[in-house]
Amino acid sequence: MNLDAIPQGVVAGSIPLFAGHPARELLPINGLKPVIQAAWRAGGVARFLNYGDEQGNPQLIDFLVERLNHRENLGISRDNLMIIGGSTGGVDMATKRLTAPGDVVLADAPSYRDALHIFRDQGLEIRAAPIDEAGIVLADLKRALRQLAAKGKAPRFYYVVPNFQNPSGITMSRERRLAVIELSRQYGFVILEDDVYSDLRYEGAAPPSFYDLAGGERVLRLGTFSKTLAPGLRIGWLIASAERIASFVESGMLRMGGGANPFSAAIVADFCRSGAWEAHARWLRGQYERRRDLALAALQSSMPADVEWTRPAGGYFIWLRLPASIHVDDLEARAQERGLYFASGRGFFVDPDEGARHLRLSFSYVPLPDLQAGIQTLGALIAGMASGG
Ligand SMILES: Cc1ncc(COP(=O)(O)O)c(C=O)c1O
Fold this sequence. Notes:
Blueprint: E1 15-16, H1 29-41, H2 45-48, H3 58-72, E2 81-84, H4 86-98, E3 104-109, H5 113-121, E4 125-132, E5 135-136, H6 138-150, E6 157-160, H7 174-187, E7 190-194, H8 210-213, E8 219-224, E9 236-239, H9 242-249, H10 252-257, H11 262-273, H12 276-302, E10 308-309, E11 317-321, H13 328-337, E12 340-341, E13 343-344, E14 358-362, H14 368-386
Parallel strand pairs: 1-12, 3-4, 3-6, 6-7, 7-8
Antiparallel strand pairs: 2-9, 4-5, 8-9, 10-11, 11-14, 13-14
Helix pairs in contact: 1-11, 3-11, 4-5, 12-14
The chain binds pyridoxal-5'-phosphate.
Residues 20, 86-88, 112, 161, 166, 194, 196, 224, 226, 231, 236 line the site of pyridoxal-5'-phosphate (PLP).
């Protein structure tokens, strides 16, 4: 959501715990400036102000291929990766290329609401299965697949945020990933892996990606610089089979559009190749880990006993479950009167009523004192409502 969407008049003292944005003070403003200035001085800027390669900036492609192979031993080549206009651009492109209106896609319940929005824009039927602390519940996913098959329908893809999911903060276990890959082979659907948060892990080890576990077969994996650099640059990447990448690069949008954001991509490529991105991401992990720890401690000390929440090992989000007596709409109205904004659970479900007892808190955007104060206010409001106030 755009921060400007907060109603005028309450912005000054408000605490936007809904904002899934990087904090303004954590953007690498000083780090990017010399990179942009150097691009100007080198005289090459005219090249980047023109149309670019359809597959994206070649230096950035090479950097990402090398990094992914080095860190994850993925064994990809530059034919497996293209630059896109942020992960959202990849979800939109994959949806348009892989589906036609009326097709079915699978998602988690809850799932990232802007992806659900894209699927609705395309006129798709969304079948969602619930998640628990290890990811999608296999029994429910299998039931959905059997029901669809009985109606002669086959889902085109399963959309998943595998690490520190938006909105729940949950990471899908390796075992579940393997089981989903098995089902994807059995039922012939693609896995659309929206991996926007894996570079923001604060503890533990990452399970291998779907792309890795499936040997690259029938998986499209998305990454982005939005969470570890700056979302305004609108740069991300897509990894897939060489055939799939070639077919996307041949799309009308890229043929005519001259590749994804050539100017931003050139700046990002220089920033990455200088080592500055890795250093910035390392620093960011420390900053966000502090925010996460403070948010969890504030929840522990502020929430009544019957409120439950997730404990994410990375990413931006904590997912709260309210006591049965409290509807999120009532809580939201009271919170907003006090200048406190959170993301209602209702937006993250195909059937909004399923989210009536949930809300998402983002610890990425607001400064530490506001994070603490906001959670304390929320705890007091919930306690008051739970006791009939
Ligand atoms: C799961 C998920 N996908 C995509 C995005 C947006 O990424 P980008 O800025 O690269 O489009 C977000 C950001 O909130 C997200 O949480």
